């Protein structure tokens, strides 16, 4: 278990602060754990389990913050911490988009805006897995919104035909809207 190993090495590091070997092993373990949490978060995001992804990215942030608390100039830890923080925010936004979509029809376009925000946050960064998931979600939601709008327009057109007593045209509009 990453956590147990990291804690044991941290205890060793604190008990023997002048020993570089213990500190170096602790740093390596922390970086490996941070990377593993980021990878697990990305896999959860790929499966659209955004709450789990957010938790994994948060755990990576905690571990990497601990490393940076001991060694502020550790470039690899800082880069991983920045990545985990970005991905945590994207997972949070994806969760919000799902909630907005499921909450009520009037908030469906809000979910697209939330996903656009998520994509903006990771634009230009090498987070291909999460970017692909968010882009796919956005496309699916936009397609569903377009379908709903098309069906609504078909029903409205059918109602107009009915009011004009054009029964055959009304029937055809209603059938198209239902298919």
What labels describe this entry?
179 residues; mainly alpha; rod-shaped
Proportion of helical residues: over 70%
Query: Which strand-content bin applies to the residues?
Result: under 5%
How large is the radius of gyration? 25 Å
Number of H- or I-type helical stretches: 7
Determine the structural class based on helices, strands and strand pairing: mainly alpha
Q: What is the overall shape?
A: rod-shaped
Average pLDDT level: 84
Uncertain segments are none
N-end to C-end Cα span: 53 Å
The major β-sheet equals:
none
The SSE string, one letter per element, is HHHHHHH
β-strand number: 0
How does this model look, in words?
It is built from seven helices and no strands. The N and C termini lie far apart (53 Å). It has 179 residues and is an all-alpha fold. The radius of gyration is 25 Å and the shape is rod-shaped. The mean pLDDT is 84.
Please write out the topology:
Layout: H1 2-15, H2 20-46, H3 50-70, H4 75-103, H5 108-122, H6 128-163, H7 167-178
Helix pairs in contact: 1-2, 2-3, 2-4, 2-6, 3-4, 4-5, 5-6, 6-7
Q: What is the structure about, briefly put?
A:
With 179 residues, the chain is an all-alpha fold. Helix content is 86%, strand content 0%.
């Amino acid at each position: 278990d990453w956590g147990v190993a990291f804690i044991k090495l941290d205890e060793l590091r604190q008990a023997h602060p002048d020993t570089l070997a213990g500190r170096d092993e602790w740093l390596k373990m922390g970086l490996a754990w941070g990377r593993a949490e980021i990878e697990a978060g990305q896999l959860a995001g790929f499966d659209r389990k955004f709450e789990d992804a957010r938790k994994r990215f948060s755990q990576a942030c905690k571990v990497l913050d601990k490393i940076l608390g001991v060694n502020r100039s550790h470039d690899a830890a800082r880069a991983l911490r920045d990545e985990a923080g970005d991905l945590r925010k994207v997972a949070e936004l994806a969760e919000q988009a799902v909630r907005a979509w499921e909450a009520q029809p009037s908030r469906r376009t809000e979910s697209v805006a939330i996903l656009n925000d998520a994509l903006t946050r990771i634009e230009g960064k090498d987070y291909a897995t999460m970017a692909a998931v968010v882009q796919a979600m956005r496309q699916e939601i936009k397609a569903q919104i377009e379908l709903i709008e098309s069906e609504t327009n078909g029903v409205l057109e059918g109602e107009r035909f009915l009011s004009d007593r054009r029964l055959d045209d009304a029937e055809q509009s209603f059938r198209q809207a239902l298919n």
